[in-house]
Sequence to fold (210 residues):
Amino acid sequence: MITKAEFEQTLLERQTKEVREKLKKGRVAIAGLGGLGSNIALMLARTGIQSLFLADFDTVDISNLNRQAYTIEQIGMKKTEALTQLIRQVNPWIEVELYQGRITSKNARELFEGYPILCEAFDDPDAKAELIETALIELPNTTIISGNGMAGTYSSNLIKTRKTMGRLYVCGDETHGISKEESLTSARVSICAGHEANMAIRLILGEEDI
Fold:
């Protein structure tokens, strides 16, 4: 078992001192722990930020395994608990806060107001729109990073990060959503998750441009 000091030293060697000092103070909330959210969380945990807030109502299902971070042994577990288990295997020192339940316009402010960055990672477009609208209105100190359009087997180069307004970034191709006509693959979903995680890292570092 490695120690926290060894983990920190390894990150320091790869991130530089200035970057490391900023990243280890980073705090990010993730709403939705499916293909996007589970992968975003693990990427940020590997980066060694200070804390993550994981929010979801669902449990791990066999249908999740083709694109989400979970394992066969975790089927039936709450996603919040299963993802925490995976995070602890990567970075046992990161602070993890959990919310097991649905996120709506009525509780979003209370849940996320302490986090400067919120990664929206819902599947349902109505829930996605509701959270973004609520966050923009009721969380003036929070920047939202949203995923939109990562279905299909289209070119990876179509997935981009776009700043649509001062506190909202959209990652994806903004066209190909989940539907009966579109496939869902781990590769393309993970690419979009990487965009969200990387934008969160850039915001922690004070780099707001894309």
